Amino acid sequence: MEFELSEDQKLIKDAARQFTEKRLIPGRTERDEKEELEPEIYKELGELGYFGMIIPEEYGGMGLDALTYITALEEIARGDAGLTICLSVHNSLASEPIRLYGKQSIREKYLPKMASGEWIGAYCLSEPEAGSDAANLKATAIKKGDHYLLNGTKSFVTSGGFAGIYVIFCATDRDKGSHGISAFAVERDTPGLILGAKEKKLGINTSDTRQIILEDCKVPAENLLGEENHGFGVALSVLNYGRTGVGAQAVGIAQAAFEEATSYSKERKQFGQPICNFQAIQFKLADMATRINAARLLVYRAAWLISKGEECRFEAAMAKLYASETANWVANQAVQILGGYGYMKEYPVERFFRDARVTEIYEGTSEVQRMVISRSILK
User: Fold this and answer.
1) Catalytic residue among 30, 38, 363, 367
2) 119-134: per-residue pLDDT in tens?
3) Per the confidence metrics, is the pTM higher than 0.85?
4) What are the b/e assignments for 173-182, b being 16+ CB within 10 Å?
């Protein structure tokens, strides 16, 4: 097994790291407080190709393999976890259903705009009463000749406030449960698509999260992704990508917290010496580094399997579970190392602590990941 990234992969990873150091780390506290990211950063990311990382070159994307893409996400997460989930959802959960299941006319219409960053993609599956039970959708889509009318409410939509295209899942046959769900590509300006208020969150504050309300939202029939009543399969087909993306985000958060705690431990003096000289701190740093590296290997392996086109539900679930729990544990240890200062917003570990929490919740909770893993073991 090869554990080294290729030279091309290293170049992509290094470029993402340089962008993070130059554009994301400076001003990150202010952006967290304002709960928004400067439009200029989105524009730069589009020009650099980050919104088209895994979109094929024929549609204007970079056509990167999953592993290369994941290494870039990890680096960006060191600087801004909220931006990272925007990129993750856009590149995988939003663009992949269109690429895999959209008609050729739909792919040609939407993917180039998504690759350039002109249109950012959003993914609308969760509802007020359908979170982990994602098949229990209340939103409906009724066919009326050459179009569908969508009605219902979608919750926790990443990039909901400024997305240009939404992948929306609705029940087309409520009696069939998960076998009666369909997926649609819906443009931002479609009549009947209404933006809810921006959510106030614990962390990832630069990510715009809100409800999307559908009131007789008229969607052309050609915007159906895949076959009618086969939408749940569309949703499941991109979960490995999404979960691995959150795993990379979690590793990036953990790495940032570790770096901050290590630097602080070398500068902070107590009892006449840097606190990194004390074994209690050394052992914390050793455990943090070990867990981060283990999480990274799990995430990279899942991404490598995706790149090879192999089924990796088991591996993606383990990667997401372990990486997200590692991010929370490492961020907690970083706060502890900084002591009272770690609790202050002046220091970034407080933000890492908040940002890490959601990684155990979205893209499937830790409990759901354990269900997936255990079922694979016991089948």
Assistant:
1) 363
2) 999 999 999 999 999 8
3) yes
4) eeeeebebbb
